[in-house]
Amino acid sequence: MTADPGEGPHVRQLLGAYVLDALTAGETRRVCRHLRHCDGCSADYVEVAEAAALLALLDEEDLLGE
Length: 66
Fold this sequence. Notes:
Helix content is 61%, strand content 0%. The protein is built from four helices and no strands. The chain is elongated.
């Protein structure tokens, strides 16, 4: 993986939907291609994926603060 040269649009705005498998096939391919070459977006992807995994551990009581 190399540092992003700053060319082309980044995919940060699509990462949440990507982690949740909520993108179209075309969007998924675009994100996959971009993540192979952009260290910044790849690091953001890891953070979003970790956050999504942690959210899955919460239950209703956690969310209501009870």
